[in-house]
Design brief:
This protein has 184 residues and is of the alpha/beta class. The chain has 3 helices and 10 strands. Strand 1 (8-10) and strand 2 form a beta hairpin. It has a 6-stranded mixed beta sheet, sandwiched between helices. A 4-stranded antiparallel beta sheet has the order 1-2-10-9. Bound molecules: inosinic acid.
């Protein structure tokens, strides 16, 4: 399957397939099963981080079989660049009342980890019963923030990726596979 997926061009750069839709779906099902077992008898609220996590969140939620709620938060992102600014700002806060709730923060990717650290700190202020973290991807070598990740889909190399919700200058979110920047 992997070998039959052609490379793509986005904003003048070439990306090769890295994780196929099948691989992603298999891992998302496993994460859903883990979360379902861990939250048996509880009713977690998934807080998805816009924009990148919308696709992962939608699939993860369908893979969870305990009753659960959803809400969204939006942070400032890379803008149009491939390099993090290191400054995290909240562009949209959660609407739900998180007090005494079991919150699971759902990110597309943890790079430096600064966004996730900001999210954990911000959400803790709402006095939830618990806060857990889930991310589809983690660039382990790039993570500098001291933040605990409860659920990680894939540990990946420190290269820029697109697809399955992740963008490069707003393009590529609709791709079903995840692609990685080819080093020139
Ligand atoms: P962090 O704060 O450095 O961990 O960055 C997290 C955010 O940066 C993610 O939620 C993404 O929006 C964005 N990001 C980090 N790496 C990539 C990537 O390889 N492709 C697309 N977006 C990325």
């Amino acid at each position: 399957m992997r070998d039959s997926v052609p490379a793509i061009r986005l904003n003048g750069e070439t990306f090769g397939v890295y994780l196929t839709a099948d691989q992603i779906q298999r891992r998302v099902s496993e994460l859903g099963a883990e979360i379902s077992a861990a939250y048996e008898g509880r009713r977690p609220i998934l807080v998805g981080v816009l924009n990148g996590a919308f696709m992962f969140l939608a699939d993860l939620m369908r893979a969870i079989d305990v009753p659960c709620e959803v809400d969204f938060i939006k942070l400032s992102s890379y803008g149009d660049s491939k390099i993090t600014s290191g400054v995290v700002r909240e562009l949209k806060s959660v609407d739900a009342n998180l007090r005494d709730k079991d919150v699971i923060i759902v990110e597309d990717i943890v790079d430096t980890g600064l966004s996730m650290q900001y999210l954990v700190d911000t959400i803790a202020q709402y006095e939830p019963a618990s806060v857990a973290t889930a991310t589809l991807l983690q660039k382990e070598d790039a993570t500098v923030a001291d933040v605990y990740l409860d659920y990680v889909g894939f540990a990946i190399s420190n290269l820029f990726v697109v697809g399955y919700g992740l963008d490069y200058s707003q393009l590529g979110r609709n791709l079903e596979h995840i692609y990685i920047l080819q080093e020139s």
